[in-house]
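Table S5 (text form). Sequence records supplied for joint modeling of the two-component complex.
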Amino acid sequence: MYPRLNKAPALVVLLLLAACSSPKVAVDGTFPVPLVNPHPIHVGWYLDDALKTYVHKEKIDRGGDWVISVGSVQQSMFDSLSQGMFKSYAFLDKPEAAAPVQLIFVPVIEQLQFSTPKQTRSKYFEVWIKYKFELRNADGTTRGEFPLTAYGKAHIQNYSMNTNSAALQEAANAACRDAMAFFALQFRTIGPVKTWLTENGLGG
Amino acid sequence: MMPNRFLRCAALFVTLLLGGCVTARVEEIREGHTAIGAADTIAVLGKRDRPSATETEFDFVDCVSKNMGPSVPVVPDRTFRDTLFPWFEPRTAPANTRDLPELISHPRFVERLNNLGVKYLVWIEGSTRRTDSAGTMSCAVSPAGGGCFGFLTWENDSEYEASIWDIKEGRTVGKVSSEAVGTSYMPAIIVPVPIIARVKSSACSSLADQLTTFLTDAS
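The corresponding structure-token record, covering 423 residues in total, follows.
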């Protein structure tokens, strides 16, 4: 005969453990389509597995293990971005054209950093994502590359009832939106893109 | 006799719970004519542009949106930002009305804005801070029972300012500011009794009422 367990204390202990555990967050959801004049070009995106499964893991001194997953939303991000920005687009299986595209983008996340309010003695979770975009011709030859650093922050007071995870997730989400905003509005001014547009009679 | 006394005690207790002292002040500066038509809406947004270190609380912005009178339909912050993405992101949001003419020069932007029916943009800036606190309280638990003893008091200060932009005219039509200060108390003799001053809530309702009057008062 097993002793009868009282469920209430066990539940309290489980809740306390859950509250104390280090955040594991994944950016999810959909992104808005940018409201810009579409460029009359056909682009291709090659998102490799490293990008699509990108997870940042970091152990903070006396702060536990933190995990931020942003890879799973990359396709959704570039899909929404392309819907608003280009005449047509395709996601490619390899970094060379299998579809009638004029220009191929190969984005890579080089680095993700984040900070907690405890570290910065502020009230914000902050996330930085450093992208590198490689630009390729339709045949797959490289045309150049450019960096893009995105930043997002979230105030802890807006998420006080939902633990640190919700604030960190929102900061990562804001960083993804920031990357999209930069790409959408600065597209024409990005060095290798500007050169390509000029060469193809689309500059100015 | 007994139930009557009990009811009075309960009413006093509820009054104490709700009745921390709050002093609120609202000011308005009008710089232009305002009117809301049947198809017009407004957008109430929290200031989040950089490099500002402060950010207006989401719940305050939400509270103001929900407390605007029925004559002033409000487009929620997130809906507005998503619909006009990427023009109102922290990196790109117009810092002042001088940035509006460039935005309005984009036909697709204007078309989307017209679909939302947004005539006025209300930017809310500010926050609620704890400015002072004092007192001590200690609690103990023993096999015979537990309880707290002591007295805590703290003061909260809410300062918010709403700038109202006529988005199509590209100019500021006025500013409404709301300030509220309140002191909360928590005496404890065995059981802590919180007497909370609803400072932020008071600032919110004052600001929303004044904004409604400002926008609907055709002067």
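Note: Chain B touches chain A through 20 residues (CB under 8 Å).
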